[in-house]
Amino acid sequence: MSPAAPSPGPTDRFAFGRFVLQASTRQLLVDGAPAKLGARAFDLLLALAERRERMVSKNELLDLVWPGLVVEEANLTVQVSSLRKLLGPTAIATIPGRGYRFMAPLLAGEEAGASPAAVRMTRAESPAAPRWTPTAPAAPSEPPFTIAPGLAPPTATPESPMPGAAAGTAPGVARGNVPRRLPPLVGRDDDLRALLAQIETQALVTITGAAGMGKTALAHAAAHALRERWRDGAWFVDLAPVTSAEQLVPAVAQTLGVTLPASGTALEARDHLVGVLSSMSALLVLDNCEQVVDAAGALAQAIVSSAPGVRLLATSQELLRVPREVRFRLDPLAIPAPGADRPGPDAALQFGAVGLFVRRAMADDPRFALSSENVQAVTDICRHLDGLPLAIELAAARVRLLGVRGLQQRLGERFRLLTGGARSAPQRHQTLHAAIDWSHSLLSAVEQTVLRRLGVFVGGFSLELAQALAQDSQLDEWAVLDAIGALVDKSMVVADAGERPRYRLLETTRSYALEKLAAAGEEVAWAKRHAEVVCEFFGRTEEARGGEQGTLSYAEFLQRLTPELDNARAALAWAGGDAGDPHLAIALIGASSAVFAALGLSLEARRSVLGLHAHVDDTVHPQRAALFWLGVCALGKSGQLPQDLTLDAAHRCQRLYRVAGARRRLYQALLKTAWYLSFVGESQAASALLPELLSLEDAMPAWLRAERWHVQGFIATGLERFGDALEACRQQRALLLHEPGEGHGLIRAEADLIHGLNMLHRYDEAIALAQTVIAREQGEHSGSMAVVLLRLMTAQIESHRVEEAWDTCRRALPGWRRDGTMPLVCGWLAVLAARSGRHADAVRLGAAASGYQRRARIENWPSIRLARERLRESLAAQALPAEETERLQREGEALDEAAIAALCAA
To answer: Count of CB atoms within 10 A of residue 753's CB?
Structure first.
């Protein structure tokens, strides 16, 4: 293997901190004096310094530092440790499972080749090394996922289209969340071909098989192959983090971007989700259904019955047991039969189990190859592992450490020892547990400790969280980092590619880790530790956004916290439980409410609020209490919490922030209070808060000042001062127009501006601005974009562009359903129906609108009142008999969102 060329270009001298590394003299100077450094350590340091702009893989370093020699990876670890002792722990960063990177900043003048005297600093002058935050190196390009030669995804033809199949979709355009590239699927070509054929003809296919059989990988491959087949693409929902039936529908809704009703029963939430799906054409994959099999079955049955354009693919250890379900049983990978002629390397590679073993072993050690000398041992190993993909991957990862022969010997020994599983359990389950147990026994004591502690994470974790959780008085964060790196190398932890690396345990491995945690008597202690670490992370990130010195953009805020929502849920469940810690739960609500609200998941957080607010007394730290009450204001701002609770929360957080002298937090509390007062019809009282807001504004960041203009415009609209509202919207937009990471606020500002133009009857300007926003955002489906489309449709209706308004309606309807904005939309839909001559539908939609608006308490808002007036005007010329009008109104009051959508899509 030829090492990659150094990226920044060769140089003779590198100066950093107290050190100067000189390539020509092979010396490392410390404060001008030569340091004692071995030849291998020097070569390693030079290789890393020359390639400082990127991560250097372990294999590349082995080839650079020990050219032509076969050495163990442990030698590399020893040299890195010796360098860290000399240079400090932050000079060389470990990228777990990948390699190392030189992190020490070079001193000014280094690239120009300045002399050591010119760049040397004394210890007192040397700046402190910054704390390292790992970032993912650029992922190497991979070939697109391919099925076996000659196999192509089925394509619909004009003569026999698949129900719900996309028509006229541009080639290469895929929707959904299935990655465009996947690792190769080894040994499953026939299975994939058969599965694709079943999906083509069946409404619900469930892949069944034992844990570790590869159900998820096969489902991913099928979704990838068919991702362009449906108009709305293919969506993959991982249910592994879902621990109760109540979490199932929110988990699916979150993946699809569907906003569930703010209140209502679990059944109503499910019906709302199914209603959204009923207008979609998509493939929906529900992965890991076994832990919520009854709830998954009920949801699947509802989807099959009501959403004919949706094809369902499920994975589970058992069937969902619903009508029209078709089982796809996934068996172990093919293995050469015992007693048959011994296959050579080429023949053995045709069996899926052997092919997977070889591919995984080569990924860990590119020098490995299947040969006539080791083919029988490899075949024997695969046979002992029953062809189970997970067990094979765990075994193949040990080849570099033990060699094939050593692996074969140890494997046989371990299986003889690990045969104590329950007789009623399937043999495959015993085998899988034995494989994991054997793999666990090869870990060091430190690696075993870290692994069982990582089991408390749900849905993956960042390196930062893992280091914070797993360390103790015996293990510092660097020891944890090295242990995670070793666990990734040994396939016990999975490293997911991405700009911000995330790690996870396979579910079977996680179950095993939790079993070990319980056996060690550490279950309660580390559940509490997990809640504390997650709370601290959410609190620190929220402070970096909204705190007195916060600089984090909205986009960065969501990017950091969204991946950890499952961990936040688990932490809240423990802290709010009988054996938990109410004070910690209060802190978690305060720290996480903003991100739950931003993602349309307020209902979850509001349930916790209603169970916790009575515990917020004088024993709670004032800072935690204040942030909790601020979160209550955010979660209840649109009337989803009792009015007295929301107003009480507003007054409490104001009082606490005044005492603390926290100006930015007080500013936020006043903003939320003013918005809520205006929402409930107290715009004059809200307006009275503006002078104090203005007195605090000097030190506020642009996004918060924009928020004040948003609230001011909202108040002016409530007072029907539309010119003032329009000016406030312009000021809001100007503050955000060039503010990085604040795109969500900008769209909301533009939606407000379009609304202001409409209220002033400046419809051509409103339409032009709306079309500019829509073109710029390229199909963005945020709640603010749903409002932009509503404002556009309103302008088109008011300027008598009825056909254009219908086009906008049909385009926007899925987004309105998904984002929960039907109460705002329904009145104008009634006006549109009336102006199209559909008077009966207009009466129905008008009645539905009145019911929605009454429940949402927005019936007196100016634009809502205007829609009612326009509807009365349009229906006045068409005097329907009173009896028929009453009948149509009764029908309208009974309409749900699905029926309203069906009326508008006709």
So the answer is: 26
